[in-house]
Structures are given as C-alpha cells and as structure tokens.
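does this look right to u?? zinc ion version
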Amino acid sequence: MAEVDGQVSEQAGAIRVRALAAIEGAEAMEDLQRVEREFTAKNGPVGALLASIKTAPPLERRGIGQAVNELKGAITCALEQRREALAADRLAAERRADDFDPTLPAASLDVGSLHPLTHVVRRLEEIFTQMGYAVLDGPEVELEFYNFDSLNIPGDHPAREHFDTFWCRSEAPEAASARLLMRTHTSPVQMRALERMELPFRAIVPGRCFRNETTDASHEHTFHQMEGLVVGEGITVGHMMGAMKTFLRELFQKDLEVRLRPGYFPFVEPGFELDVRCPFCADRKTRGCSVCKRSTWIELCPSGMVHPVVLRHGGVDPERYTGFAFGLGLSRLVMLRFGIDDIRHLLGCDLRFLSQF
Ligand SMILES: [Zn+2]
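got this back:
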C-alpha cells in the first residue's frame, strides 16, 4: 500500500514539474492554450493518473484522488498566473509599438485658409461699407447692351477693340445688343445700379471679369475688379479724391498721396488715371523701389465723372445729378498687398502657395 501511494505521489510530482515548466515556458497565449490542452485533456498525464484509481486497491483510492486534485489545482493556478502575465506583456508591447503617450496633445487637423483675394475683398467691403457704400453683385454672363452699348461703347467704337471678349454661342439669331458675353469688366453693374437704386447712392461691385487674353505673369483670362459708383446731386472730382484717399488710408494704414492724370474711357467724362504714391517706399529717404519701378507712383485705377450719356441710359437726369466711378484692379491690389509677382498664382490650385495665407 505504501509502495503504490509513493509511486502515485512520485508520478504526480513529475507531472507537476513538467507542467509548471511548460507553462512558464509558454511565450504567447497560443502556446499556453496548447500546454493547457496537453495537461488537462482526459487522455493527458493527469487524466491517466486519475484513471489509475479504478485499478488501485480501495484503501489507496482516496490518496490518489487527493494527489490528483492537488496537481490539478497547482496546474490551474500556474495557468492563471501565466495568462495574466502574458496579457500584461501584450498590452505593454502594443503601447510600445504605437508609441502611445496619453500626455501628448492630439494630432492637429489640416484646415483650409482664406484665399488672398478673399482677404482683400472682405477688407475692402468692410472699409467701403463703413463709408456708406452698398455692396452690389451682377451677372458674369452679361448682355452686350450692359457690357458695351449702355456704357457709351457702341458697336463701331474703337474702344471695343481694347476688350478681347469671350462671346457666348447661341442657337437663335439675336437682335443687336441682345447677344450674351462673359463680362469684360464690372462696369455693366453701373448701369444695373442706375436702373434700380434710389438716388443718391454709393456702391461697390467686387467681381470676376473675363478677357480672351494670352496669359503671362501680369495677364489672366479671368481676373477680379471692383467697381465703385457714387451718384447724387453736386458730386464732384473732389468727392472722388476724398473717397480714394480715405480707402487707401484704411487699407495701407497710412496717408498716401493720390494724383490724377488724364485718361480716356468712353463711360466717363472727364476720365482719369488715378495714381497712388507707392506705399512700399513712401516713408523711405531714398524714394523708389522695385514695386513702383523706381517712379514712386503706382497706377491704381481708371476713374472719372460718369458720362452724361451713361446717366441718361440709366434713366438719371444728368442736368440734376452727377457721379463718379472707378474700376479698381482687385487682382493687382492683392498682388501689391501680399507681394505676389505672378497673377497666375491667384487662380492656380497650388497648395504650397495657398496655404501661406
Ligand atoms: Zn516704391
């Protein structure tokens, strides 16, 4: 009896040593599951030891049962500990692999920015609305009448040759002046404003214009202008100069001289080229820079007193009312404001350029 008992405990001890070594040696959950199956299966070593109860003398069976239970308990306990250790190892490895650091700030999102043109248009709208101007809009596909005829540019007028126009194709033959085109300037909105606005009024019209031009660093087929129009009783060139000086002071944050040179545009009389003292070198002792091409003046916009013919086309009595108009080159102003040397950047979609603003 003692001999059989001793044999069982010896076998149990040997299984225990093998099982614990295998459990300790398991490097992954899969290994551990395999070890568990190997030792706890019915036909495994523990099962075989238990089966020996059947052939053992009755008095020894209790001893065998106890030995097997102790063995099972030891194996289960070792499996549980190893499982926890492996789970902790795996978590630590995952954290290392992700370089996971909960104290770091979250990754920033890529957000868009405003186009330089939008920056300038918004600023100009702000300045002019503070000066009592309305912001108007008009169609980009325009009637020939509004773009040319109503502005004192009849069909055979030589001034039309300055505008290389994109004409819209049409199926039906149209009456003269009813043809459609892509507007070549923002001036047609002058006429639409004269027709609709109550007098007196002040208005600006920022918008896109189109000309059939070969593109280069200073020419684009699509460009931006901002028309200005003020009509009322007793409006003079002095009012125009005052308005321009005020807006330039607001935009460049300094007082800048302006000057007028005679200019010819069919829809104004008299017409002027309005120049501004170069804001980039006005404060320096040595005047002149690359922006103003050493002249200290920058051509800002064509301007003038609204032609009586234009007022009459808009249903306004030129004997009673006068007005001034100007056509700011927005694209050019944006280039001046941000020091951009090629107009083609403005319509390009290069993010390296756009993300700077
Ligand atoms: Zn300059």
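The chain has a mean pLDDT of 87. idk if thats expected tbh
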